Amino acid sequence: MSTALSKTASIGIIGAGTMGAGIVAVALRAGHAVYLHDTRQQALTQGAESVTASLDRWVKRGHLTARQRDECLARLTLAAELSELSACALVVEAIIENLEIKQQLFSALEAVVGEHTILASNTSSISITAIAATLQRPQRMVGMHFFNPATVLPLVEVVKGEATCATVVAQVSELATQWGKCPVECKSTPGFIVNRVARPFYAEALLGLEDQVAPAAVIDAALRDAGGFRMGPLELMDLIGHDTNFAVTRSIYDAFFQDPRYRPSLTQKALVDAGWLGRKTGRGFYRYDPGSTPDAITYEAACPQPKLVQQFGDFPGAQTVRHVAEEHGCHIERHNGDGYLMVDGVQLRPCLGLTALALATAQELDQVVLFDASTHLEAASLVVLSGADTCRRASLDSVVGFFQALGKQVVIIDDVAGMLVTRTLCMLANEAAQAVSQGIATAQAVDLAMLKGVNYPVGPLAWADAFGNHNVVTVLDNLARACPDGRYRANALLRRKALTNTPWNHAE
Ligand code: NAD
User: Fold this and answer.
1) What CATH number labels 192-213+216-296+417-507?
2) What fold does the segment set 309-412 form as a domain?
3) How far is the CA of 384 from the centre of ligand 1 (A)?
4) Distance (Å, rounded) from C-alpha 449 to C-alpha 430?
5) What is the pLDDT of residue 325?
6) Handedness of CA 41, 47, 48, 49 (dihedral sign)
7) Which helix (H) or strand (E) segment is 68 a member of?
8) CA 457 to CA 373: how far, in whole Å?
9) Which of 21, 100, 374, 396 has minimal Cβ neighbours within 10 Å of its Cβ?
10) What is the predicted pLDDT for the residue at 4?
11) What is the β-pairing status of strands 333-335 and 33-37?
C-alpha cells in the first residue's frame, strides 16, 4: 500500500490531551516532524507545555541533550486547522472516547490527507472495525493503542480491524519499534489484549472482598507479596480510579453480550455511586486523606519450626518449595504419594481449587491446610494459607512455623475455593488462552502485552506452563463446580494443552 514510514515522514496527532501529548513527545524524539491538532486552542497550548515537560524530563535523565530537545520542539507544529495535516504519512487520533465523534473526525480527515496516509486510533475500547466503517478506504485504518504515560510505557497494541490491510499493520508495528516501543499485533476485540486479559486480576479480588475471604489489605498483600504482582488489585483500582476501571469493565461486559466471565462488581459500583473513586478523591478501598494511616495487616505471630516435614509425591511448585527449604536448612523427606507435604502430621497441599474442608472431608482427615500459589516463591515475602474448619489451631501453627522457617511472613485467609492468588492466576491464564484460541493474538503476543503493558511478573501462559496446564484446568473445573454460572469455564485450547502436555509458545 504506502511506502515505509521513515524518520522523514510527517506524523499528525489529533487530540492534545493526556495521550496525544505523550505520543507527540515520542514521535518528536524519534525524529519526525509532528503536526498536533485539537479543536480547542487552550488544549493545544497545554499540550505543547506537556510535550516540553516530557522532553525536559528526558534531558534531565540524560536521554536527550538540550540541543536535541530544541530540535524536537522546532519540528512541532500546533495546527489549529485539520487541513494542516494534509502531508502526514500517519495520523494518530487521541480524542474523546466516542464512536460517532471519532467517525466524523476520520471522515473529515480523509477529505484532507493523501490516499496512502495511514489512519490510526488510540482508542482503548471502541472497535477499530466500527471506526473504519464510515471511511472510503477502511483498509488504512488501524488501532495504535498506547498506554498511559505514553512517554514511559513501552507497549503499543497494533489493532487490526476487519478491513485493515496487513501491510498497514506491519508498517505501524515497524514504526512503533523505531520509536523504541514494543508493538504487539492483535485483532480488534473488546479490550484488545491487555484490558481484556487483565479483567480477572480485578474481578477475582472484588469477588474475594465480597465473599469476605480477607480484608482489602490482605487481598492486596496476597497478590503483591505472595503473587509477585507490582501492586495489589484493590490498590491498583484505587490508583486507576473506580470510575475508569468500572467503565472499562462494563464496556467489555456489554461488548461480550453479558458473558458472566466479565460481570462487573456491585462492590465497585457502590464505590462509584458514593463518589469514592480512589486516590483522586481521597477515598476508595483505602483512605488517602491527610492523617489517614494505611490499613494494618495481621501477620501470624512467630510459631516454632516443625520437627518433621515429608513430601508425598509431586505437586505444582514442589521443586521450588524443596529448594527454598534446603536454602533455609530445612530437610524434607521424600515418599510416594499423590502430591502433598506432611508437616508434623498436618497435611499441607497446594491450592487446586477445592477448599481445605472438601479435601479433609473426602479423605476423612481433619488436619488439612492449603497454601496459595506464587509466581516466584523464592522472592515472595508472604505465604497465604487456609485451613479446613476441622483443623486445630495447633495444626495451623505447625504450617505457619514451617513457612516462617523459610523466611516468609504468613497470613491465613478464609477457606474458599481457589483461595486468592491461585484463582486469579488461573483465570488470567484462561482469559489469555481464550484470546489465543479465538485468534486475537499469538500466545507470545499475549504474554508480551501483559509483561510490557501492565508489568506482570510473568506472562499468564508462561505461568500456566510452569504450574501445569492440567493443574490450571483442575482449578478452573473445581471453581466452576463451586460457582456454576459459566464464569470459570475452561477454554477448549487450554484443555487440549493440558491433555497433550504441550506448552504455549509464550514470550520469555
Ligand atoms: P483527554 O481528555 O486528555 O484529551 C482529549 C483531547 O481531545 C482534548 O484536548 C479535546 O479537546 C480533544 N478533542 C476532543 N474532540 C476533538 C475533535 N473532534 N477534534 C480534535 N480534538 C478533539 O483524553 P485522553 O485521556 O488523552 O484520551 C484520548 C484517547 O486515548 C481516548 O480514545 C482514550 O480512550 C484513549 N486512551 C486513553 C488512555 C488514558 O489512560 N487516558 C490510555 C490509552 C488510550
Assistant:
1) 1.10.1040.50
2) Transcription Regulator spoIIAA (3.30.750)
3) 41
4) 15
5) 96
6) positive
7) helix 66-74
8) 13
9) 100
10) 65
11) unpaired
Angle between helices 242-255 and 199-210 (to 10 degrees): 110
Find out whether the beta carbon of 105 lies less than 6 Å from any atom of ligand 1: yes
Give residue for cell 502433598. Answer: 340
* Lookup: cell for 437: 484460541
Asked if 69 and 56 touch (Cβ cutoff 8 Å), the reply is: yes
- What mean pLDDT, rounded, does the chain reach? 96
Q: Does the annotation count 471 as an active-site position?
A: no
Find cell 482508542 and name the residue: 123
As a whole number, mean pLDDT of residues 90-95 equals: 98
Query: What's the sign of the alpha-carbon dihedral 405, 408, 412, 415?
Result: negative
Measured CA to CA in angstroms, residue 247 lies from 39, 55, 164, 242, 406 at distances of: 25, 32, 27, 8, 42
What is each CA distance from 15 to 79, 173, 197, in whole angstroms? 11, 22, 27
Catalytic residue among 32, 50, 54, 145: 145
In short, whether 88's Cβ falls inside 6 Å of ligand 1 is no
Separation of alpha carbons 67 and 217, rounded Å: 48
- pLDDT single digits (tens) 179-213: 999 999 999 999 999 999 999 999 999 999 999 99
Binning pLDDT at 50, 70 and 90, where does residue 2 land? very low
Question: Is 60 exceeded by the pLDDT of residue 3?
Answer: no
Q: Which member of 93, 157, 235, 300 is catalytic?
A: 157
Answer yes or no: 204 catalytic. no
Pairwise CA distance, residues 388 & 399, whole Å: 13
The residues near 365 (Cβ < 8 Å, ≥ 6 apart) are 347
Residues in contact with 205: Cβ distance below 8 Å, sequence separation at least 6, in sequence order: 219, 220, 223, 232, 233, 234, 420, 424
pLDDT digits (tens, 9 = 90+) for 210-268: 999 999 999 999 999 999 999 999 999 999 999 999 999 999 999 999 999 999 999 99
Verify whether residue 235 is a known catalytic residue.
Answer: no
Q: How far is ligand 1, taken at its centre, from the CA of residue 59, in Å? A: 26
Question: What would the grid cell of residue 93 be?
Answer: 487520533
The Cβ of residue 180 has, within 10 Å, a number of other Cβ atoms equal to: 11
Name the CATH superfamily for 11-188.
NAD(P)-binding Rossmann-like Domain (3.40.50.720)
CB of 124 within 6 A of ligand 1: the answer is yes
Distance 93 CA to ligand 1 centre (A): 8
Instruction: Indicate the domain borders of the chain.
Output: 11-188, 192-213+216-296+417-507, 309-412
Residue range 280-291: average pLDDT? 94
Per-residue confidence band for 1, with pLDDT thresholds at 50, 70 and 90: very low
Kindly report the number of other CB atoms within 10 A of residue 154's CB atom.
Answer: 17
Can you tell me whether residue 118 is helix, strand or coil? strand
